[in-house]
């Protein structure tokens, strides 16, 4: 199939995709048709930390490989095709055999993850817009499959563009008013993971938020003897806990993750000792409104200058005040402001503030009698607490 036809096919497939998982699944259908793989996964990333916040893992690596994989990826960060190294490169795709110049054994990721699983090579595809990386596809072939071809590499790189655009759009979905009339918890909950990063205890509030993460895993995820939730939020929690356990981090680790309902939740992990056993405690709850401003404006694809101006508009600055603050003309401010309106899909300052507030901030505000997604509470009973 001609490359341009494959890209158009993906663009058609992504129309109407609701939620990040839907975007990843529809992209995978087209991508794997053009670039077959024996093992694959798709990850949603927090662009600020590049930590996992969800994704499609049902066809990915076995559970026994995940702890070491997370350590190499998020703690050691020194392998040739590490995610953070890829995010600094110009291309959207990277092939491990090409990056190692055919010397795969030079990569500890290959030696410790791929080779023991009988996998011969790995193709990584970043879903990136400007300096921000929102997702990642990982495609692997085993020793019995043909190597990835230059045409397949080019197809993967080309398909990353519409996939990234659709993923970013999916993160702007509004709440699900009318779908669920139950009050939503406004406080964070807690999760305790043991030394092997297995969930040992989880509060009802944390379970509520974890269940909303956009993550699909295989059902045999827990090693024998594990307990607690397996299918929902499992990889997100483990990736965060591995990062927090790194002694160089000290203060712990933090990630913001989108839910399927268009809300954002914050997960913070801290390593502690309990009875001599290493333990990780994770808090899970609504993201504070102040944390959302740069993230939301990044999702809309604003330039740094347009983002500055939008943030000043949100705090009520006039055109003249913004011009003086930034040392530019009022005409320049108006020009950037028009770009902001076009990107966000509004026609005035009032609409801009309303769009950002009612879609992104109001859902995070714990202010009775409103639920955290802005709906009136129909049930006066208190929500579950951590």
TrEMBL record:
Keyword list, A-Z: DNA-binding, Transcription, Transcription regulation
Sequence ranges assigned to domain HTH luxR-type in this UniProt record: 294-361
UniProt cross-references to SMART domains, sorted A to Z: HTH_LUXR
Any one Pfam family match given in the protein's UniProt record, by short name: GerE
Keyword DNA-binding included in the entry's annotation: yes
Protein name: Helix-turn-helix transcriptional regulator
């Amino acid at each position: 199939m001609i490359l341009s036809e494959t890209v158009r096919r993906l663009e058609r497939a992504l129309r109407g995709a609701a939620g990040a998982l839907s975007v990843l699944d529809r992209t995978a259908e087209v991508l794997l048709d053009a670039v077959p793989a024996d093992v694959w996964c798709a990850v949603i990333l927090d662009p600020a930390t590049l930590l996992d916040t969800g994704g499609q893992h049902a066809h990915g690596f076995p559970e026994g490989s995940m702890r070491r994989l997370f350590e190499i990826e998020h703690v050691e960060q020194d392998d040739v095709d590490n995610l953070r190294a890829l995010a600094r490169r110009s291309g959207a795709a990277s092939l491990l055999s090409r990056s190692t110049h055919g010397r795969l054994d030079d990569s500890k990721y290959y030696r410790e993850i791929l080779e023991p699983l009988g996998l011969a090579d790995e193709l990584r595809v970043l879903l990136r817009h400007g300096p921000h990386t929102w997702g990642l596809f990982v495609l692997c072939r085993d020793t019995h499959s043909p190597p990835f071809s230059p045409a397949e590499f080019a197809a993967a790189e080309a398909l990353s563009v519409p996939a990234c655009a659709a993923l970013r759009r999916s993160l702007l979905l509004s709440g699900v008013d009318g779908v669920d009339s139950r009050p939503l918890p406004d406080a964070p909950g807690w999760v305790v993971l043991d030394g092997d990063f297995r969930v040992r205890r989880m509060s009802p509030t944390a379970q509520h938020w974890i269940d909303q993460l956009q993550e699909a895993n295989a059902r045999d995820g827990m090693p024998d003897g594990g307990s607690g939730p397996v299918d929902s939020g499992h990889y997100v929690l483990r990736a965060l806990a591995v990062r927090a356990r790194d002694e160089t981090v000290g203060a712990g680790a933090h990630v913001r993750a989108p839910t399927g309902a268009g809300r954002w939740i914050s997960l913070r992990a801290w390593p502690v000792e309990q009875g001599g056993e290493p333990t990780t405690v994770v808090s899970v709850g609504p993201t504070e409104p102040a944390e959302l401003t740069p993230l939301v404006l990044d999702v809309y694809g604003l330039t740094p200058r347009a983002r500055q101006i939008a943030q000043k508009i949100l705090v009520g600055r006039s055109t003249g005040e913004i011009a003086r603050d930034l040392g530019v003309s009022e005409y320049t401010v108006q020009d950037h402001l028009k770009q902001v309106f076009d990107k966000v899909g509004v026609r005035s300052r009032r609409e801009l503030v309303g769009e950002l507030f009612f879609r992104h901030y109001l859902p995070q505000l714990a202010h009775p009698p409103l639920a955290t997604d802005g709906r009136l509470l129909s049930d006066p009973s208190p929500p579950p607490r951590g």
